[in-house]
Amino acid sequence: MSHRLLAIASIGLAIALTGCKSQPDAASLQSENESLRAELAQKNAALEASERERAAAEARAGDAGKTAAKGDTGFEDAGEGATVKRDSEGVRVTLEGDVLFDSGKASLKDSAKKTLAKVASVLNEKYAGKAIRVAGFTDTDPIKKSNYKSNYHLGFDRAFEVREYLIAKGVDAKTISLSSYGPDRPEKTKAQSRRVELLVVE
Predict the structure, then answer these.
(1) How many CB atoms lie within 10 A of CB 157?
(2) Left if phi > 0, otherwise alpha if psi is -120 to 50, otherwise beta: which for 90?
(3) DSSP summary character for residue 174
(4) Domain range annotation of the chain
(5) Contact by Cβ (8 Å): 157, 104
(6) Average pLDDT, the chain
(7) pTM (2 decimals)?
(8) SS3 per residue for 96-126
(9) Which residue from 25, 47, 88, 200 has the highest number of Cβ atoms inside 10 Å of its Cβ?
């Protein structure tokens, strides 16, 4: 009987010891938990660093886009009455009509030729061979005290006069086309509406 009890006790002890070995102790669980936390912290740090780099790259790209849109066209210092912007069609130089011409006329003012000379210089140096569209615009007031039959005629002759001056300064005549929108595309004010636009097609 005693031998039988001793055998049962031995079996029970063996089962107990086996169960203890199959279950991790508290210290082991804590160590594993700390390891997982450290790994998670490293991954979060790497993710945050990646996000910061992405945001910085987008900011740099945005700044580059703004710079390309606003500057680096060559026309920024064209002179009085000239403004420039880059849009989906190309580089657009707007020349104020009141700076270029007297009211109702299409003969260039002497003071305007300095601006056009700078524009021609940029066209020759930076945009040689590019297609150039020159368009004349007027305000919406009907022609009254002018020899022109309509604002379309006036707008065209003004564009033509600008074209002829650019050609005289060395711009290839074959690259320049002409059009007149007359009063069809007014700006916010009459003064802004009276203009000649040069579009360098890119």
Answers:
(1) 19
(2) left
(3) G
(4) 2-69, 82-201
(5) no
(6) 83
(7) 0.65
(8) EHHHHECCCCCCECHHHHHHHHHHHHHHHHH
(9) 200
